[in-house]
Amino acid sequence: MRMRLMLGGLVMLVLLGMAGLGLFALHRTDAAHRAASAELAELQAVLDTGRRAETGFKRQVQEWKNLLLRSREAASRRALEDRFLAEQTRTAGLLQRLAEAAPRLPGEAGAPLPALAAEHAALAARYAEALAGADPATPEGPRAIDDRVRGVDRALEQKLDAAAEAIAGAVQASREAMLRDSAARYAETRRLLLIGSGGGLLLVLALLLTLATRRPA
Fold first, then answer.
1. To the nearest whole number, what is the mean pLDDT of the chain?
2. Which CATH architecture has domain 45-196?
3. pLDDT by residue (tens digit) across 121-149?
4. Which of 2, 25, 62, 197 has its CA at 20 to 30 Å from residue 214's CA atom?
């Protein structure tokens, strides 16, 4: 009787060990999935900021054109200039956030981002200088202002487009890497559980066989 109780206890220990192994494997897989999901969400947030900066700069350029074309009256000019400066400030803030997020991007995707904020600041200074150099309310004013900054926004616009595409590529690459890692972890977890379950079952069968074949003294 005592032997049977001992063997039964050993069987329970084996079963508990198998359950513990399964819980450990599930916890490990869940922790890895959570970490990968958090990293991917962070990269997606950077991509969203990049897209917003890209769109914001386009709006800024459009507001600049509106300022030149529709600022004949002083009151209109103040309102249009405020709108332009608001878009410029908003874009500058987004570019600063991109520059701060650059180290978190994989590969070379973040390398050009700090320079974009500096280039945007230099462009803002040129806009301000052009506005100060001529009066858009005069007939020749808008043309004179436009001549000072014509085409200066194109290089930055192209760089913003390229940066957004590079970030999108980094996000996609990270997503694919996460899927590959998830598949590998699933296969590893399944293999671990199969080995542990198989070994545990063999041990249980061996114990049961020992119990069945043992003859009372």
1. 82
2. Up-down Bundle (1.20)
3. 999 999 999 888 877 777 777 788 888 88
4. 197
Q: Are 117 and 92 spatial neighbours (Cβ–Cβ below 8 Å)?
A: yes
CA distance 214 to 217: 9
Dump pLDDT digits (tens) for 23-61.
Answer: 777 777 777 777 777 888 888 888 899 999 999 999 999
pLDDT for the residue 14: 67
Long-range own/partner contacts, residues 34-39 (CB < 8 A, 24 or more apart): 36/178, 36/181, 36/182, 37/178, 39/174, 39/178
pTM of the model: 0.72
Closest CA to 113 of 42, 37, 47: 47
State how far the Cα of 40 lies from the Cα of 61, in Å rounded to an integer.
Answer: 32
What letter represents residue 6's amino acid?
M
Task: Give CA–CA dist 202/196, Å, rounded.
Answer: 10
**Would you state the torsion angle of the CA atoms of residues 173, 178, 180, 183, taken in this order, to the nearest 10 degrees?**
-160
Give dist(CA 210, CA 217) in Å, integer: 14
What does the block give as tokens for 197? Answer: 């379950």
